[in-house]
Write a structure and sequence with these properties.
With 537 residues, the chain is an alpha/beta fold. It folds into three domains: 145 residues, OB fold (Dihydrolipoamide Acetyltransferase, E2P); 146 residues, inorganic pyrophosphatase (n-terminal core), CATH 3.90.1640; 105 residues, Diaminopimelate Epimerase, Chain A, domain 1 (Roll). The chain has a five-stranded parallel sheet, with helices on both faces. Strand 1 and strand 2 form a beta hairpin. Helix 5 packs parallel to helix 8 and helix 5 packs across helix 13. The radius of gyration is 24 Å and the shape is globular. The N terminus is likely disordered.
């Protein structure tokens, strides 16, 4: 049985102990038990996944691309405005131009066109003189748009990783896999028509997209990230180097955290508030001054996005009815580009499914985030008669609808989630109990073999009972709590108020990650506290 403990609103679940060896226990927790599985986890190469990389439709698409190059036809790369779509667009643009193709990238405008293929975008391709359109990170559900492309006499190659419908678009070729991100699917398409060195270099964009699109970092996703990090850490890409300078990070030591929390949001921000084509320009430019200008633009836009998000979340909290089993919040003040972030913040703080809606003049756009056990996109699809469009997956979804349907939509969604329990507890999945004497630099060094951490391979989470607290103090204007636990440095972010309920010398049960804090040439063990409770006397 799983062991259960409570502190505040969280449930602690310590996974069943199946090994005395902590590293073996971590592998078991990740469903890695057999020797072959361990080899794949620690030592796998992309060649080990060749079967998954040989996606149906690639050879036919490559033949059409070569024909377009021979005839000097214009190829439009039709991308998307998020990090995955931008990265996939950069991969195709760099790859195809390297072999002599005439390429024109196209990124739809988030607010004016929305996600995926649009008639506006296809007309742009036709009017630009293109005869071939290649989608990246979109297109697998574009049934009507594919028919429209045929009407415009455009050959359409679709590369995508999103969930398909029962009906497939009528395209020249479809290259589709749900086992990787959209950028990885695009890489699989072009790797066979470019040199090995360039193919390896382009993996840095696959790595960025893999992290930012929350692909599981087990199996193929893990290998894509590890291989891509090799290229990213020694990159000569001007845009990424300048973006790293703006963000004050060292690319030589970049990891999944820096990608997901520092680089990714900057690449995303411009597509949320302005036009994502500037993010693609940053990744593709060969001019230093332009790279500096675009990197600053993206960073400044991200700061603006952060403030808009904070303001919108503050407004959203005033609209919340805590008696509801789903929080459906709407405002005319919210930019469409930040509603996903608003829904995510509300869902995370109140641990309820949340839907944030930007109300326009006649059409409203919505974004949803969900809790474990509730497939939000399936719930929203139950309202398809009220919607213009909807897409997503179990944890997140996006949709649009006419304003006159908004009230009915809200009522129907609230009715569909009536079976949710009144109180949904947030669960901390803890890898193992750990004696404080085993918290050593040697253990940390061994844990580094499990990197890169991220979705599907979280940083190991431990619990230690009856640790004695000392040196309690707040930092960061009272927001964060620093202390020592059994004489080991510890910090809890966003829990400064705990200082008011703890006392020096007290014993607590602590849930934490372990890291090695490196500063000015010194190394110190530090516990990153996720939760605690006062120990039983």
């Amino acid at each position: 049985m799983l062991q259960l403990h409570r502190f505040m609103q969280k449930i602690w679940k310590v996974k069943p102990k199946q090994s005395e060896d902590i590293l073996e226990q971590l592998l078991i927790n990740r469903n890695i038990a057999a020797d072959k599985e361990k080899q794949v986890f620690f030592d796998a190469k992309l060649d080990d996944f060749e079967k998954e990389l040989q996606i149906s439709g690639i050879l036919k698409a490559q033949k059409r691309i070569k024909e377009a190059i021979e005839k000097q036809e214009l190829i439009v790369i039709y991308g998307d405005y998020d990090v995955d779509g931008i990265s996939a667009s950069a991969i195709c643009y760099k790859a195809l131009t390297s072999i002599g193709a005439k390429v024109l990238p196209y990124i739809p405008h988030r607010e004016k066109e929305g996600y995926g293929l649009s008639e506006t975008g296809l007309m742009f391709a036709r009017d630009s003189g293109a005869s071939l359109v290649i989608t990246v990170d979109n297109g697998i559900v574009a049934i009507n748009q594919a028919k429209y492309a045929k009407d415009l006499e455009l050959d359409l190659i679709i590369t995508d990783h999103h969930l398909p419908l029962k009906e497939k678009p009528q395209a020249y070729s479809i290259i589709h896999s749900t086992k990787m991100c959209g950028a990885a699917v695009a890489w699989c398409l072009v790797r066979g028509v470019i040199g090995k060195n360039l193919a390896q270099d382009l993996l840095q964009f696959v790595a960025i997209a893999t992290v930012c699109d929350l692909m599981p970092l087990i199996g193929l996703g893990r290998v894509f990230l590890k291989e891509g990090l090799k290229a990213l850490r020694k990159t000569d890409n001007l845009g990424l180097r300048e973006l790293a300078k703006e963000a004050k990070i060292d690319l030589e030591n970049v990891g999944s955290y820096e990608i997901g929390h520092i680089l990714g949001p900057r690449l995303n921000a411009v597509g949320r508030l302005e036009h994502a084509i500037d993010a693609l320009r940053l990744l593709c430019t060969k001019h230093v001054i332009k790279a500096k200008t675009l990197a600053k633009l993206l960073s400044d836009t991200n700061k603006k996005r952060q403030q808009l998000t904070l303001d919108a979340v503050d407004e959203a909290k005033l609209l919340i009815d805590k008696t509801k089993k789903v929080h459906i919040l709407s405002s005319q003040n919210w930019s469409q580009g930040i509603i996903g972030l608003v829904a995510g913040r509300v869902c995370g703080e109140y641990y309820r499914p949340a839907i944030a809606i930007s109300v326009g003049e006649s059409i409203s756009k919505g974004s949803a985030r969900s809790v474990a056990g509730l497939n939000i996109v399936e719930i929203i699809r139950e309202c398809k008669d009220l919607l213009i469009d909807v897409g997503g997956h179990s944890g997140a979804a996006g949709f649009s609808l006419y304003n006159e349907n908004l009230k009915t939509f809200i009522e129907k969604i609230e009715g569909l989630v009536m079976d949710l329990p009144d109180q949904i507890e947030q669960v901390l999945e803890i890898d193992a109990q750990l004696d404080s004497k085993k918290i050593t630099k040697s253990l940390i060094n061994k844990l580094e073999d499990f990197e890169p951490f991220g979705f599907g391979n979280p940083r190991p989470l431990f619990v230690t009972e009856r640790m004695q607290v000392s040196g309690l103090k707040t930092v960061g204007e009272g927001k964060h709590l620093k202390f020592r636990a059994d004489n080991i440095d510890a910090i809890g972010f966003g829990v400064g108020e705990w200082k008011n309920i703890l006392t020096n010398g007290q014993f607590v049960d602590l849930v934490y990650n372990i890291e090695l804090n490196r500063y000015n040439g010194f190394e110190k063990i530090q516990l990153m506290v996720k939760d605690l409770k006062v120990s039983d006397s």
